[in-house]
Amino acid sequence: MSHTVHVAWDESLIRYDFGHGHPLNPVRVDLTIRLARELGVLDGPGVHVAVPEPADEASLRTVHTPEYIQAVRAAGADPDTVDVTHGLGTADDPCFAGMHEASALVAGGTIAAARAVWSGAAVHGVNIAGGLHHAMPASASGFCVYNDPAIGIQALLDAGAERVAYVDVDVHHGDGVQAIFYDDPRVLTISLHQSPRTLFPGTGYPEETGGPGAEGSAANVALPPGTGDRGWLRAFHAVVPPLLRSWQPQILVTQHGCDSHLEDPLAHLALTVDGQRESYRVLHELAHELCGGRWVATGGGGYALIEVVPRAWTHLLAIAAESPVDPATPTPQGWRDHIMARYSRRAPARMTDGADPSFADWSDGYDPADWLDKAVVATRTAVFPLHGIDPSF
Length: 393
Prior knowledge:
It contains eleven helices and eight strands. The protein is of the alpha/beta class. The radius of gyration is 19 Å and the shape is globular. Belongs to the histone deacetylase family.
């Protein structure tokens, strides 16, 4: 029997933990699952919550070098390791006990979600603990040890997929996934992120459009700091749907870092949970329009651990379960009580920030002097002609 959504989850996923004081705190994943459970999202019809198996060595090697995997194993056995060559033991990626096992489990969750969708066992697949999009083939980077979205995409290619689209809405450029598939014409990567002139990792310019033989396989929208819902959604709609409709993917893989929120402490965009939710809703619709519903979604960044991440990703889970949560819904009292008792913090009272996620459509015209519109024009000019799309409409 086919499920509506395969959710990769087990409490052991919170072992991906760089330690006290690190921004990527697994509490955000724990609180998301608690909120989703209390709202009944994970108990809905067709929701299959499955305990993932760690990715095996062969799966990891489809993206990462054997030497790097061995370095991760060694770092997990000796957390005092400093291995700058492999990006381990740095401030961003400190070593921790069991690093390999925890990272392989995250990758295994995304692989399982991807295989469930590709095989038809589920229409959608979600791994909110995943989305570690900065890891490179031979090094950790940006809080990411193994690049689970890339490993999941490679599993789809190995299973016979010929056209995979990857859309990344994290505030940081999806550099690892882009780099891994930059020369592969079977994978289209689209990333919307804060301008690399002002934010890590310093890549993701519009001119990055794919390698030789794969021209047009990468698209990057570099947004000015301060961009809010209206501008972000305007840029999203001006780039993502036209490219996906031209590409005609067989399956859609998405990364949903919610560090684009105005309260996120590590970046400078200004989205609300309502704007983020709207992007999830549209990507879900595009998966049904173009891919027969085949959609694999992961988490990603997000450092407003209580205020933003749990609500954003609960909306993602609910949309994937075909049971969207009304933004006006109050957050459950039990969830709020848990946060107060455990963290002495007041949790958000509703599933909304009270914002209206409307925007001016690109087809209504653009302002060549506006910084946001300049960013959109740069992307459309660089990549649309490579897909046979007129960038000027």
